[in-house]
Amino acid sequence: MTTRGSPQMKGTPHFKEEQCAPALNLEMRKILDLQAPIMSLQSVLEDLLVATSDGLLHLIHWEGMTNGRKAINLCTVPFSVDLQSSRAGSFLGFADVHIKDMEYCATLDGFAVVFNDGKVGFITPVSSRFTAEQLHGVWPQDVVDGTCVAVNNKYRLMAFGCASGSVQVYTIDNTTGAMLLSHKLELTAKQYPDIWNKTGAVKLVRWSPDNSVVVVTWEYGGLSLWSVFGAQLICTLGGDFAYRSDGTKKDPLKINSMSWGAEGYHLWVISGFGSQNTENESDSKSIVKQPGILLFQFIKSALTVNPCMSNQEQVLLQGEDRLYLNCGEASQSQNPRSSSAHSDHKTHREKSPFADGSLESQSLSTLLGHRHWHVVQISSTYLESNWPIRFSAIDKLGQNIAVVGKFGFAHYSLLTKKWKLFGNITQEQNMIVTGGLAWWNDFIVLACYNISDRQEELRVYLRTSNLDNAFAHVTKTQAETLLLSVFRDMVIVFRADCSICLYSIERKSDGPNTAGIQVLQEVSMSRYIPHPFLVVSVTLTSVSTENGITLKMPQQARDAESIMLNLAGQLIMMQRDRSGPQIREKDSNPNQRKLLPFCPPVVLAQSVENVWTTCRANKQKRHLLEALWLSCGGAGMKVWLPLFPRDHRKPHSFLSQRIMLPFHINIYPLAVLFEDALVLGAVNDTLLYDSLYSRNSAREQLEVLFPFCVVERTSQIYLHHILRQLLVRNLGEQALLLAQSCAALPYFPHVLELMLHEVLEEEATSREPIPDPLLPTVAKFITEFPLFLQTVVHCARKTEYALWNYLFAAVGNPKDLFEECLMAQDLDTAASYLIILQNMEVPAVSRQHATLLFNTALEQGKWDLCRHMIRFLKAIGSGESETPPSTPTAQEPSSSGGGFEFFRNRSISLSQSAESVPASKFSLQKTLSMPSGPSGKRWSKDSDCAENMYIDMMLWRHARRLLEEVRLKDLGCFAAQLGFELISWLCRERTRAARVDNFVLALKRLHKDFLWPLPITPAASVSSPFRNGKYRTVGEQLLKSQSTDPFLNLEIDAGVSNVQRSQSWLSNIGPAHQEIDTASSHGPQMQDAFLSPLSNKGDECSIGSATDLTESSSMVDGDWTMVDENFSTLSLTQSELEHISMELASKGPHKSQVQLRYLLHIFMEAGCLDWCIVIGLILRESSIINQILVIIQSSEVDGEMLQNIKTGLHAVDRWASTDCPGYKPFLNIIKPHLQKLSEITEEQVQPEAFQPMTVGKTPEQTSPRAEENRSSSGHGSIPQGEVGGSSLVSRKEEDTTRAEEEEPFQDGTYDCSVS
Predict the structure, then answer these.
(1) Which residues contact 927 (CB under 8 A, 6 or more apart)?
(2) 243 neighbors 212 (Cβ within 8 angstroms)
(3) Which end of the chain is more exposed for a tag (fewer CB within 10 A), N or C?
(4) DSSP state of 569
C-alpha cells in the first residue's frame, strides 16, 4: 500500500516538492498464530509484548521470531501489595484470568495491567531478563472494577478507568514499590447533579503527547479533560454541551476510539453508532448512523512545554498556528482592537497552566478589564516548513514573542506587527531547538542541536539585528539540553545527563549587539533523578528557608539562592550551602567569584503541576513577592509564605521562617500576579448555535449538536484564603502585616468581606459544635481596618437572616455599630445597619435610630437617603415589613418622550384641593412616579396619621433652622428634593421663622450662597436711559434672551405646581424639554398668549405675572427673529450697550438667577414680603419692589411686617452708603417706592382686623393677599402641597457649562411627581 502527498498542499504558495508526505510501503512479512484472541499489544523497545485471552504473555521480537522464549503464564507471576514482601506474594491462582488492557511505562520500567475480573496491577521485571521467574506484580487491594488503563511517563502515573465511572490514578512508592493512590478523576454531584453517577464505565483514557492533560470518555458518551493531578478543565456532560437552546437534553457524544494529534493540538475521535434511545423523538433518526471522524482543536499554555515562562507575568497560549496573549499596555496602546479569532476553532481548550501576569507598568484594568485575547497569527511562511509549533515565549514587557517549530525559530513584535524569520533557510533547517527558549532583555536564549556539526549548543540572538547565525553568540554544551530558564542575569539549564549548569549572561562591552555566556557552576543530580525525562521544570529562585533576616549579608537575600526542580510532580529544593566560611569579596571580579555549593535536595511538596516565583523585590509587599506559588491540580493551590518578625525584632527560635498554606480556587491557575494578589486563568466558554438550523433538517449532525467554544480569560482573588489560613494557625500578626501591605488594592474591601462570609457560612451552618470557632478571630482581625463597619454590614446583607445572630454575637451589637457609623459620618453604611436593626429589634428601636439617621441626613443634604428614610419611617409606622433598598436605584424619567403630552393636565386650578383632583391624574402619577421619592400616600387622605405628623415635625424643624441661619439655597434644595410643602409652611411661619431679622446679613449671605457678585458702581448709571420704565423692561428681556435659557421666568408663573418649579433645583432648565405652564384658567386662550408681541404690554410687564411668562417664553432658544419688530429695531447707543454689558457682569450664574426667581415666587405666594424685598434687592429689579408695593396697597398686610421691611431697607441703605456703594444707584431708583411704603405704614390698618386662626397653640394669620395678588391675572391659589399628582417634569441633561454651581443638587434620582 502506497500513499502520496495530499492534493491540498499543491495549492499553497512557495510549495516545495520535498514537502510531500513520504511514500509508505506496507508489506506483509510474517504471520504468527498465537492460538488465542489477542487482547492487547504493546511495543517494548525492540520487542512486541502480546497478551492473549488464554492468560499468556508473549514476548515477540520485531523480526517475528520468538527467540525461543516461552510465553509467560500469568498464573505463575507472584503478586503482592508491595515489593518488600516479594517472595510471600500470592499467585492469581485461577485458570481463566487474562489481561484485558495493558500499557508499558518506560520511566517505571513495567506494565500497568487490567485483568478481566476488574483487578488492576503493575508487573515489573525484577532483573533485565524477561522470564516468568523474574516477573513480579503489585496490586492495590481496593480496585475490583478496572476497565482500561493509560500511563503518563513524565509523571510516572497510571490512570485506571473503573466501571463506576471514576478514574483512579496510581503512582509507585519509591521505597516499598507499592501502588499508592495519587488522586481520582470523578464527576461530583455538586457540579453534575443529574449525570454524575449515570455515566457508565470509563471507556477510554488517553494522556496527551506532552503528558500535561488526560482525556476520559465513558460508556454512555461524553468527553472530559483533566490536568495531570486532577483539575477538571472541560466536560461535555453539562451546560451547553448537554442541552439544546430550547432546553431539551441532547444525547451525549459516544466515542469508540480516540487519539491525540501532534503536540496535543488535536484530538481525533471516531464517534459511536447512532443514538441509544431512539424512541424519544422522531428526529433522532436524522442523527448520522454510521461512525464519523471528528477533530477537536485545542490550545494549550506555553507552560506545558516551556515551563521557564512561569516567572513571566504574561499569559501566553499557543495553538497550532496562532498565539493568544492577554494584552498588556504595550500592545494595548498600539492595538486598541483585540481580535477574537475563534472562527474555525472547535473545542478551544487550554491544556493546563497558562501563565499570565502584570508588570509594574501595567494597570489592573488592562489585565482584567476585558475578556478578549490578543490573537497573533503565526507567519505562514515559517509554519509551511516547520509546523507544528513546539515552544513559545514572551518577553517581560509583553511586546515580543518567539516561537519554535520543527526547525529554527521566528519572532514577532507586537509594536511593529512584523515577523522576523531567518534570511538563510539552510541556517533555519540546520537547528532543532531542544530545551525551550527564553527572553533576556532584548535577547533570545535557546538551547539547540546543530544538525550539520552534530553538536549541542546554547545560542543567544539579538532581537533587533537580522535573524542570522552571524549575529548569534554560540556556546557548545556537552549533553542535550532538556530545560532552560532565565533568572535575572543567569541562565540555568538541565541536561540529559541529569546535570544542572548555571551560566552568567551579560552584554559584551566590545559591541552593544552581542551578549556573552560564561559557565558559572555545574551540579550533578544523577544521584537524585532516576530518569532525566521525569524533570518537569527547573527554576532558579531567590526563595530560601532563611528569609533574609538571619543572613549574614543582606544582599544575598536577592541572589539566586536555590534551585527548584519539579521531579514528576515532587517539588525539590536545593539551597546554597551557607554553612561554610563566608568570604566578602568586595574587590574581586564577580565573574571569578566562586559560587557557593548547593545543599542536598529537600522535598517541599507533592503533586505539583506548576511553580511561580518572581525575581522582583518590593519592600512593601515582601510577603507576596518572596512567596513561592504552587498549583497542585485538583488539590487547588499552595503558597510557601515567608514569615517576618515585626519591626525587625529577633525572630523566635521556635517560629519557622516559612509556612506552606493550601487553598482552593475556582479557576485553573495559569499565572500569579504577585503584588496584585490575583490568580489569572482561562476558561472554556460555550455558545449554542443550534437554533440556526431547524431541528428536523438533515443538518443536525454531530457538529451542530456541539456548541461553539471560545476560551475566555478569568481571574480570582486569593488573598482572603491566605489570611484565613494564617488566622487558623494563630499567626494573626503575620496576617495583619500581609493585609496592611495590600490594603491599597481596589478590591481589598471585597477580600475582607469574602473571608468573613465564608467563615460565617461554614461555622453557622455546621451540624456539630465547633470546638475552636474562627469567626471571633476574623471579626477581631477586620476591626483593625477602617472598612470594618461596611464589611460587616455588606456581609450581613448578603447572608440569610438565620445567621445574623451568630454573626453579630461575634462582631458586636448592630445598635452600637450603627452609632459608630453615625459618629464616623458614614450615613450610607448606617442606613444598611438600619435594615438589620429593623429585622432584629422592636419597631420602637428602629424608629429611634431611623430618626437619628434622618436628622443627620437632612443636616448633610443627603437627599436620596432622606427620601428613603421617609419611606422607611412610614413603613415602620404602618407596620409594613418591607425593607427599603439600601442604595437608591438610579432611574430617570424619560426626558424627551412624553414631555409635552402633560400640558393639558399639568396646572390644576389653584383652589382645588388634592382630594378633588380627577382620578385620571392620580393614575398618571402612579405610572410615572419613581420608586425613590415620597410615596403618593403621604400627601393624601392619611396625612393626618401620626407617622406623617412625626415626619412633618422633623421636616418643619429642619426648615426652621435653615431659615434662621439664612440658608436659602439649602432651603430651596431641601424643599425641591423632598417635595416639602414650602408655601403652606411659610404661610404659617410668616411672623416667626420666616421673618427677616437682619436685612444686611441676609443680603450678604445670599450673595455668598448664590455666588452672586456684589454690584459695582458704573460711571454712567445715574444718567442711564434705562431708568425709563419702558426701556428698562426691554433691557431685561434682552438680557433674558442672551442668557442660555430663554425660559428664564418660567418658574414665576403662579399656576406652576411647586414640584415643577422645584425642577430648577434639581437640574438646569434648558429649552430642549421645557414645558410651558399657564394657569388652568388660561387654557383656552393659550395660543394667543404665546404669540402676543413683546412690546404690547410695555410698562405693565411685571415679573410675577403670567403674561410676562408667556411672552418671554415665546423667544425660543433666544431666537431673535421671532421677536416683535419694535423690539428688533431698537437703536442702541454705545452707552446703552455699555450699560447692558455692565448689567451682565453684575449678574451671578444663570442657575442662581433661576433659583432666586423661584424662591422669590415661593415667598410671594406665602406672603413673606420681607424676603421678597431682599431677593428683589439682590436681583436689582425695581419691578419686583414695585410689584410688592402693589400687593401691599391692594391687600391688608400685617403692620409689623411693614415696619420690619421699612427698618430693614433703611439698614440696607446705611450699609450701602458705607460698605457697598454699588447698591446706591438701585436704591435711588426705588426711592419713590420707599416713600410710598412709609405712607402706607402710617395709614396701616391694625392687625385686629384679621381673623385669627390657630394651629397648635400659636395664633397665625391667614393670607388673603394671595388671591388679590393674582386676581388680575386670573389665577386661583392653593397651598403648595396640594398640587395634583399629574405634575411631571422631565429633566434636561445637566448643563455642563454650569461649573460654578456649588452644591450638586442632582445626586441620584428624583421623584418629580407629588400627589
Answers:
(1) none
(2) no
(3) N
(4) T
Residue type, 1075: E
Q: Reply yes or no on whether the pLDDT at 1082 is more than 80.
A: no
Q: Give the Å distances, CA to CA, from 610 to 227, 496, 569, 631, 668.
A: 11, 21, 9, 5, 11
pLDDT above 90: residue 1123: no
Find the range with the poorest average confidence among 204-208, 536-540, 627-631, 969-973: 969-973
* CA–CA separation, 313 and 356 (whole Å): 5
Distance CA 523, CA 498 (A): 9
729-749 b/e (C-beta count within 10 Å ≥ 16 → b): eebbebbbbbbebbeebebbb
- Between CA 1186 and CA 1192 the distance in angstroms is 10
Q: How far is CA 297 from each of CA 346, 375, 625, 709, 1031, rounded to the nearest angstrom? A: 6, 16, 37, 10, 85
Whether the Cβ atoms of residue 719 and residue 741 lie closer than 8 Å to each other: no
Strands of 222-313 (E only): list them.
223-227, 232-235, 255-260, 266-271, 293-297, 300-301
Alpha-carbon gap, residue 1111 to 1124, rounded angstroms: 11
Q: What's the confidence (pLDDT) of residue 828?
A: 93
User: Left (φ > 0), alpha (ψ -120 to 50) or beta: where does 266 sit?
Assistant: beta
Give the residue carrying C-alpha cell 512593601: 620
For 959, list phi and psi in degrees, rounded to 5. Answer: -60, -40
- What is the maximum alpha-carbon separation in the chain? 145
Q: Are 149 and 102 in contact (CB under 8 A)?
A: yes
**Cα(first)–Cα(last) distance of the chain, in Å?**
92
Q: Residue length, the chain?
A: 1315
Distance CA 1116, CA 338 (A): 47
Average the pLDDT over each of 362-376, 981-995, 1012-1026, 1194-1208 and give the range with the smallest value: 1012-1026
The letter for the amino acid at 15 is F
Q: Is the peptide bond before 388 cis (omega within 30 degrees of 0)?
A: yes
DSSP per position, 293-345: EEEEE--EEGGGT-GGGGGS-S-EEE-SSEEEE---HHHHHH--S-----TT-
The mean predicted confidence, pLDDT, of the chain is: 75
Give 83-152 as a DSSP string.
STTGGGPEE--STT--EEEEEEETTTTEEEEEETTS-EEEEEESSSS-SGGGEEEE--TT---EEEEEEE
Give the three cell numbers for residue 1234.
420707599
List all residues 6 or more positions away from 27 whose beta carbon is below 8 Å from its beta carbon.
none
> By C-alpha distance, which of 1067, 1099, 1108 is closest to 1303?
1067
